[in-house]
Every structure is written in structure tokens, then in C-alpha cells.
Amino acid sequence: MTLQPGLQTAPQKPALCPLLNTTSQTACSCETLVSCLVREQNRDTVEAMVRRQRPRRLACLALMAVLLADLLALSDTLAVMSVDLGSESMKVAIVKPGVPMEIVLNKESRRKTPVTVTLKENERFFGDSAASMAIKNPKATLRYFQHLLGKQENNPHVALYRARFPEHELGFDPQRQTVYFQISPQLQFSPEEVLSMLLNYSRSLAEDFAEQPIKDAVITVPAFFNQAERRAVLQAARMAGLKVLQLINDNTATALSYGVFRRKDINTTAQNIMFYDMGSGSTVCTIVTYQTVKTKDAGMQPQLQIRGVGFDRTLGGLEMELRLREHLAGLFNEQRKGQGAKDVRENPRAMAKLLREANRLKTVLSANADHMAQIEGLMDDVDFKAKVTRAEFEELCADLFERVPRPVQQALQSAQMNLDEIEQVILVGGATRVPKVQEVLLKAVGKEELGKNINADEAAAMGAVYQAAALSKAFKVKPFVVRDAVIYPILVEFTREVEEEPGVRSLKHNKRVLFSRMGPYPQRKVITFNRYSHDFNFHINYGDLGFLGPEDLRVFGSQNLTTVKLKGVGESFKKYPDYESKGIKAHFNLDESGVLSLDRVESVFETLVEDSPEEESTLTKLGNTISSLFGGGSTPDTKENGTDTIQEEEEGPAEGSKDEPGEQAELKEEAEAPAEDTSPPPPSEPKGDAAPEGEKATEKDNGEKPEAQKPSEKGEAGSEGVPPAPEEGKKQKPARKQKMVEEIGVELVVLDLPDLPEDELARSAQKLQDLTLRDLEKQEREKAANSLEAFIFETQDKLYQSEYQEVSTEEQREDISGRLSATSTWLEDEGFGATTVMLKEKLAELKKLCQGLFFRVEERKKWPERLSALDNLLNHSSMFLKGARLIPEMDQIFTEVEMTTLEKVINETWAWKNATVAEQAKLPATEKPVLLSKDIEAKMMALDREVQYLLNKAKFAKPRPRPKDKNGTRAEPPLNASASDQGEKVIPPPGQTEDAKPVSEPEKETRSESADSEPLELGGPGAESEQKEQPTGQKRTLKNDEL
């Protein structure tokens, strides 16, 4: 991960001497050594400054190290991922520091992974490995299982799945009325569990690619998924241990990807784009409007709004492949007609082969007019070969192509738009590559051409991972407002008694639309029941689904969602008999994933109380003032401001952000109250106003409003959302409102599809975790077996290599070869039942047996390099010692003891090297060597330590004071000194000593040396002027530097 600008490391200063950054192999001449040592004497001032700055530099480095460590620790959990769950394949994308929006490659280095799982008694396969197992074991290989999510046993899609894949045995779960896969008497898995396995596998791929653990994910789902299907996906992700940031519709993710990469083209003018997505299992047509809007926090930002959606649940590439498979099966049966052979449709393996060939054939026919279908050994060792033309394929799927324009018409109808308002139609999904699909669609939309300027396979994954980064707190992305749309309307139904005539009471059934069709979400709404004083029930159901056909309604399932039973309403009225009831408020939330939830139900009461301002203490007044400054004074009013009365049909625009849930609605039993305030509420509802156990939450009276508040506003809207008034207002109108909130008990009865109980969910998660651990153990065992087998083969091959034969005897090689052969035989005969520990022990025994042989070979390989490095170090150290002894006594910085010690180490190293090499030459190659590479390295380290000690001493040595010149004259100027330089020098008169020199002269020398040592000031004009003022003796020092 790259460092942030604030954590960049400081550039290193250039070394003061070339020898200070050298290794033990550094070579330098005696002249260079002497030059460096002389130059070091003139740098004491610079070194003193460096020593003064060293503590501060160390403190900065320590602080930077701490910050860098914190940043690296934080980066371990920064990555987020997205999973684009298609019917046939899935794409996984990640975002991590330094890797923005990248598609994850699977173990086969492919960007697309088949959504296939093979389940056996003792192993599992995923992706391409499972797809290859579909031919060998079709019953244990599960595909297209997402079509069973959230569906009960009597759903038409369950019957369709049985017809398409008869090899799978589907069991019946009486508790939830759903189905599960019966692999064997001991193995049975629900569709949610199978999906959980696949999500866990996708996370492992992402973690291997990102090289760090990942828990946060955004998962794509079809736009036509209802509440039961969305909850099923969330439960599967929970089993896999994933934290789902959002379930995003795949059409919305595609539109987001399109807008993100064309951000500059979006302006205030609305652009209507149609995305036609035909995948393997379904088709979705979406109309999206792009334009820039003004946001509350970020100013003008691009926005996408889903305007219309049309879909066909069964129109896709899979149905085309099934038609082709049936055609090929008929051709094969005709070829074998009269031979008394069985129908190929009764053989699951043969049908799996035909389906794979049909998939390939459909792809090839998209670019060719005809192709030869051929399968080797289709059934009973009989090969199959037949020619199929594109015309035959289009004839087989003629009724499917007639259904292509229907999603377009549905999308236009739901958006209340016509084709003239659509600027471009863009193709998405693999099945749109079929030429006939493009031909029919182009005719239906009436455009000149279809847009293909988007990656049809990866657009949804890229859009989803962008949304994941936006929702994650670890990344900061450019805002892009997303306003998704509700496909299926949701309403609330309740019944109450009314008195139509005096003494005659009857039941009246009421319906209130909670979330209307094509309304934006995420969104929160509140419904107020203001004529109930006892416990009652209400129902949450789907609204008008007339836009669905009869078959789609059967596939949709139950239209009733939940029955809500309230308990404690009567007790709350008894608890506050003197308070005025403001109704029973039910808070609903349609979150970012499109999942509806009932947050809470409250009974709200109000009353007017008189409170003298003198009773408030000074601390209370100060606390109220501070609270008002930070928005705390409006906490009790926040909820009521969020439940202002509006008309049922009005819905507030919900921004596509998790922080702006949208406008809330208060729907009363009778719509006689006019809308008092339609301004959007605050983004969140603090829990402080929900007072459990009768805790009181106060709110201010209307008289406490500031003067800017209009006096005509009445009711709740007039008293809510108002900051605390100043002290003068309190003295004038001491009466205030007091609000009491009582939590109401809620019992939910799920009617569409019961969720898994918590204990059942925990058991499923534990079962999947055990399977994952088993897979890891299996991988560890396979790794150990492969390591053992590879070691045997490699060692047997090495025994015949010349370098190994030179250092071993014939008996030693025969012993090793025999042990290797025995282990190989054991591995073939009994290795299948061996445990991981046994395999590792076998490998350790063989390595111990061959350790001596390998050691002798490795030592001989290291000798030339190590001995050459030792010789170079000895030669350079001898030259360094010779140069040190040539330094004049007046400038000598090394003591005789130090130079003698270095000379002793050099001589001892030479003697050890010569003696050890001679002794090694006498030993046979098959014996353990006495000349070891580690001993050579130890000698080199000892010698290098002595040399470095002397170099460090030279670096920090202070120059000795030079004797004064008796005649008072200065040295001659250098030959290359200019006339102006000579003219500037002042020769003191006879008898005047050096003490009469200006005091500032050494300071100029110091500044010049400092300037020379700073890399950013080299060659500056200041350096030239200071150089002119230096004494002649110092000029000669610079002359030595030039050498």
C-alpha cells in the first residue's frame, strides 16, 4: 500500500564520505582514503549540527513509525467486495487501498466463475471444478439453484426446476413449506445453504486476491426479487459470515457503473437511457434518468433515478440452451432408431453432456450460420455428430424471441414514457449476443442502432463494488446519488368499528398505501392509528399487482406479508388517563436492500403543563443553552417533526444514501386532516424521544417558537422542530407541552415465507463451517502428499546428477534410492488412507536421510562466491590499513593500538583461510567438509567490524589545531586562483600575528562547508561568493577534494 502524502519518508541526505555507505566488498585506493580522511577533519561543525538534530530526528521517525503501523493495521480490514450473482456465472470485484475496482480472478485465472456446487460425502467442488464434475456426477452437481430461493413447494418455478433438471431429488420441508436438495440419505441442503457455500467461496477468492480478510460485501439480486427472496439471500450471507452492506438490484448496479464512468457527460439536462439485460435465467429492461441535482452536503452531484422496470422471469439463454438440448437429443435418438437403444433423455450424464454442447453451440451460432455439434461417447460408447444451422436454432426459439419486446413495453408503461424520450438503448447480459434477439429488439425500440459501449458481463459487478466503497467507512468516493424504485407496492390494511347510524355499528376495512409502485427507496414512513384505545391488529400486504400476468402472479407467491398484533395499547391509555392521545404510531423502514421492516410501534400522549421559569436552576439554563447550540434541544421534537401529516399519495423523495432515509408519512385513519408540513424531516430519528418504561420526553409550547415561526401554523407541525426559545419567551409563556411515549408490544406473524429460526440458522452456519474446516484439512493433506511425492521424484533424479555423485559413494546412493522407492510404493498402496501427520513424518524422515548429501552439494556451490568475497575484503582491508599508516602524524586520527588490532585480524583471517582450504583439499569429497560457508561469513563479519569501527571514528573525529606560522605569512594561492581572488587577500604587516584575523573568517568557512553539504544549494551564486573569501589553506583542501 502506498503511503499517504502526510506519511512520506524524508529524503536521505548524501553521505559525507564515500566509504561510509560501503559494504565489506568496497574497494578504494590509498589516495582516495587519505583524501576522505583529510576532508573529514574539516566537517566537525556539520557533524556537531547533525548530532544536535539527531534526537529530534529520532522522535520524528518514531512518530512516523507509529502512524505507519496504525495505518498498516487499519489496511488489514479496508477491502470490500461485491458479488454479482448471475444464474449461470458470478463475478467478484474488490476495492482495497491501491486497487480501485478490480475484477477478482479465480483459481483458473478467469474473471467469470460458474455458479455451480458439487457436494459429495467427503468433499466439495466450486466453480470450474464443479462444472467439470457435472458430467461425471450430475446428481451431486447443483446449478441454477437461485430459482428456488424464497419459493414454497407449490410454486410453479419449483415444478419447472424439476422438469429442467430431473436428476436432482427435491425434498419437502413441512415447517417452511419449502424444498431442499436430497443428495444422499445423509446429505441434504436447502437452497440458502448452497448459496451460502458459494458466497463463502467467493469471499475466499476475494481474500486471496486482496491478500487480506474481507467481511463487507454488496450482493446483486434481480430487480424482480420480492421480500421473501431478498430475505433468503440475506440469510445465506449471514450463514457465510458476510456483512451485507446492501442488496443492490443488478439493473441499478449496471446503471451506476455506466454513470460513474461517464460522470462528465451528466448535466442538469435529463438523459433517459434504457438498459436491456438478458442473462441466462431472466430478462430485465430498465429506464434510467441521469442528471445533476443539488444535494444537501455536496452541492451539485450526478444522480441516477430508476424510472421504469419491465421483466420476464424465464426468458434467457438457459431456455434457449434447453431447446437446443432437446433438439440434439431428438437427433441422437433418430440416429439410433431401430437399434433397440434407450432414450438418451433417461441418462442424466448424457443429458449433461448435451446441455454443455448446447451452450457451446448457441455461442458459436451467434457468429456463424451453421456449426457441427459433436460429442464423443455420448451414451453407450456411441459418438454423436450432427449439423445445426442458425435458422433451425431461431425456429426452435421463435416463441422466445416474440417475448423480447414485452419487458420494453412494461418498462415504458411503468415509467409513463414513450420511445421518443429514450435517447439510447444499451445491451447488457450474455444472451443479448444472439443476433435474433438484437434484431427483434432493434425493431421494437425503433432506434438506428443498439448501444454496446458497456461491458455486458462485468458492469453489474463494477457498479456494485463502487457502491460498496461508498457505503464503507474506509473509502471516500465521489458522490453519486442513487434513487432506486419500488417494484411491488406495499400497503397497510386494518379494520375498525364505525357507527354509520345511531346505535348501528359496523366494521370498516381500510387500506393505506405505504410504499407506492416506482416510488423511491430507501425510505422511512410512519402510520398513525388515532382511533384505537385497545389492542388491535393490522396487516402488511402487497398492493395492486395488476401489472403482473396470471402466470407471474402464481410465481410471485403469497401477496400477504405480515400480520402485526399489538399488545399493551389499553394499558398505555390507563397509564396516562389525563393526557391527550396523539395516536398509535408505527414506524416502517424500507432499507437500502429493499427489505421492509417494522422498527417500532409507540403510543404517544401530550398534555399542557405550567412551569415557572424561576424553578429552573442556573445549571439547567446553561445546559439548555449548550444543548440548543449543538442541536440537543430539538431532540424531543425530532420524531414528531418526522411524522407530520401528509396525504397518502404523497411520498417524499428518498436520496439513495444511507444517511438520508427520505420523507416519512403519517397516514391517519381518516384523511380529513390537511397536510400541515411537507418539508423533509431530519435524517435520523434519535432514540431519545422513545421513552421506555414511562420515561418522560418534554417538548416546548407553541408560544416558545422563535419570531420567524409563522403564527398560523397549528397542530403538531407548529410545535415540533423548534429550537429552544430565549429566556424572555419563557417568562412570557411558561406553559409548555409534555409528551409521553410508551412502547407497544409487537408480535409479527410472517405470511409469505417464514424465516429460518435462530437455532436452525445457527445449526446451518455451524454445519457449513464444519464443511469448510474439512475442506481446509483436505487441502492440507493434499499439499503434504504432493510435497512428499515431489521430494521423492526430485531426489531420485538428483542421484544421477554428477554434482551429487561426486560427493557420495555408491553405497550411500543405493541406500537413499531404496528408501525413496519404498516410500513411493507405500504412498501408492496405502497413501490414500494416510493422515496429514503421517505424510509429514515420512517427508521428514527422507529429508533427514538426505540431509548430509544435500549439505555437501550446497557447500560446494557456495565456496567460490564466499572465498572470492573473503579475498576481496582482505585485499581492501590491507589497502585501508596501508593508507591509514600513510597519514601524517600531525593529522593522524587512529592510534597505534587500533591499527595493530586491525593488522592482527587481517593476518589471522589470512592464516585461517589458507589453513582451512589446505585441510579441505586433503579430505575426500564424500566426507563432511571443514570449510563451511557460515565460518567464512563469520570471519568476514569480524574483519568488517574492525574496519567499520575505524571508519566511524574517522567520520566523527575532530581536527587537531594547526601550529601558527612564525613569520606571519600565509601559504601561496593555488595556481588556478583568479586575479580577483588574489587581489582580495590582505597580507598582514610584519610583526602582526594570526590573532589579528577577523573573527568571522572561520564562520564563512563553516557556512561554505554547510552549503557544500546541502544538495539543494549546490552551484548557487552564494556558494561562489563565499568560496572567494576562503583562506588559501582552505582552497588547497578543496583542491584535495577534487582529487
Question: What's this entry about, in short?
Answer:
The chain is α+β, with helices and mostly antiparallel strands. It contains 30 helices and 31 strands.
Give the arrangement of secondary structure elements.
Blueprint lengths: L29 H12 L2 H32 L4 E6 L3 E8 L2 E5 L9 E2 L1 E4 L4 E3 H10 L4 E3 L12 H9 L5 E4 L4 E5 L5 E2 L1 H20 L5 E6 L5 H13 L3 E7 H11 L10 E8 L4 E13 L3 E14 L4 H19 L12 H18 L4 E10 L2 E8 H7 L1 H5 L3 H10 L8 E5 L6 H11 L13 H13 L9 E5 L4 E12 L2 E12 L4 E2 L1 E7 L7 E6 L7 H7 L3 E8 L1 H7 L4 E11 L5 E15 L7 H12 L5 H7 L24 E2 L28 E4 L27 H6 L2 E9 L1 E6 L7 H41 L3 H5 L3 H21 L5 H14 L1 H35 L10 H27 L10 H24 L22 H6 L15 H14 L7 H8 L3 H11 L1
Parallel strand pairs: 1-11, 11-12, 13-18, 15-19, 23-28
Antiparallel strand pairs: 1-2, 2-3, 2-4, 5-6, 5-7, 8-9, 9-10, 13-14, 14-15, 16-17, 19-22, 20-21, 20-24, 23-26, 24-25, 25-31, 26-27, 27-30, 29-30
Helix pairs in contact: 1-24, 5-6, 7-14, 8-9, 20-22, 20-23, 24-25, 24-26, 25-26
